[in-house]
Amino acid sequence: xxxSNCSLHSIPPGLAEATAAIVLDLTENPLTTLPNxxxxxxxxxxxxxxxxxxxxxxxSDAWQNVTEDRSSRLCQGQxxxxxxxxxxxxxCPENAVCAPxxxxxxxxxxxxxxxxxxxxxxxxxxxxxxxxILGAATVSLSLLLWGTQRRKAKTP
Length: 156
Known about the structure:
This protein is α+β, with helices and mostly antiparallel strands. The chain is 15% helix and 22% strand.
C-alpha cells in the first residue's frame, strides 16, 4: 500500500480497513505522530516505511530490523510479542492464549469452550432457555395488557 507523498498530516481513518497489508509506505508525508492503536490488527505487516521523524510503531523491539536512510525509517519483519522472552505487562487470563494484534500489540483469545469476561464462563450461551423465558414473558404481558385494556377500546 503506497501512501507516500500524499500530504497526510494524520493517519487516514480508512487505513484501519487495510489490515491485510503486507507492505506500507508512509514516507514523504508531514506526519507528526502515529497514534497508539493506528496499526491494530495489522498482523501481516512485514515492511513499514515512515518519515524519519517518527519511530516504528510498537518501538524497535516490535521489529526484527529497523534501518534509517536520509529521509525515512524502514521497519521490517514484525516480531510476535507473544514469543518474546520479555514478560508481558498484562498477561492473559488462565483460560486464554496470547495472539499478536499488530506491531507491539497483543490480544488474548479465549480457549475453547471458555468465553466471556476474562474467559471465566465455560460452555455456550443458553439460547433456548433465554428465548423461552423472553417469549413467555412477552406473551404473558401481552395477554395481561389485552385483557385489562380492551374495555377501554371504543366499539363502533
